[in-house]
């Protein structure tokens, strides 16, 4: 880093994305990408796109896509916010709703970007531990009187809260913003989107990356009260008003139109997840109950780092987080059933 960087950032630890090595062909189960391609309608939309229009700025409001999403989720277009990936939305949320007198609550085992963003924006925050079984202590959030961010399902555990539990949290903290990060909700968790029409302090964040095979397209969206959406828009227009590129808007519109295709893919991943969980248990692994497109697993006698390295040596990439309480675990993305059979075969070899 240069000698000009602000003092605040000299020892700053930024978020580390999952590795994308190119040195060999890997079975890539480390970044929770979909194993399925985008819908045929998305390919057709790309072929039909008027490339001459790429010389123009995209629609900063994304009005056409907002309309389609609003219809799909049974809300109004004014309840939809679009951005360049859901991480951008989380970033804007940290900027918009956390004054110096506020305290934001973050779970201790969760998506590490939250803590990074809090430090980046100098937000006061406190870490609330998960229970011993790595479930969210949802009753501990009842009436806590602080802004909250909760992923549902949680990452990296994959464990989900019910909609009833989320509503209890939101209802008991009416003067605080509750952000529910539903990046993985499509894989079996109960979405809280329907609650946004009832509570003006609830923002639900989703992404096209996982469930709609669009990680490379970088498109996230949020659903919430129109006033919350206006807050996010103010943050966005103060940083990058043309946040979503024109091609992503076009392809995302086609993806929403092809929702049935993606729902079928989601069901295939869910079935593959349950199959893989059972096979891993047969090998002796402890497997957390997941409602996401990944499994969080550990094996007695093996450290998480050791499993990660042995699998990588054999061409299988998984994710390991070297943190207290979870150092023995690895996170495994769910792919197709043949990919999972390949994982099981390599895992059997690794553990002898």
| Number of discrete domains | 2
Multimeric state: single chain
Q: Based on CA inertia axes, which overall geometry fits?
A: globular
Q: Percentage of helical residues?
A: 25-40%
CA-CA gap between termini:
44 Å
The count of strands amounts to 12
Query: Measured on Cα atoms, how large is the radius of gyration?
Result: 20 Å
As residue ranges, the low-confidence spans are none
CATH topology of the largest domain: Aspartate Aminotransferase, domain 2
Task: Provide the CATH superfamily of the largest domain.
Answer: Type I PLP-dependent aspartate aminotransferase-like (Major domain)
Task: Indicate the proportion of strand residues.
Answer: 5-15%
CATH class of the largest domain: Alpha Beta
Q: Which strand order spans the largest sheet, edge to edge or round the barrel?
A: 2-8-7-6-5-3-4
Helix vs. strand class: alpha/beta
Please give the largest β-sheet: 7 strands, mixed
Number of helices: 10
Mean pLDDT: 95
The helix/strand order is EHHEHEHEEHEEEHHHEEHEEH
User: In the CATH hierarchy, what is the architecture of the largest domain at level 2?
Assistant: 3-Layer(aba) Sandwich
Describe this structure in words.
With about 350 residues, the chain is of the alpha/beta class. The protein has ten helices and twelve strands. It has helices spanning about 40-50, 65-75, 85-95, 115-120, 165-170, 225-235, 245-255, 260-280, 305-315, 335-350, and strands spanning about 25-30, 80-85, 105, 125-130, 145-150, 180, 200-205, 220-225, 285, 295-300, 315, 330-335. β9 and β10 (about 295-300) form a beta hairpin.
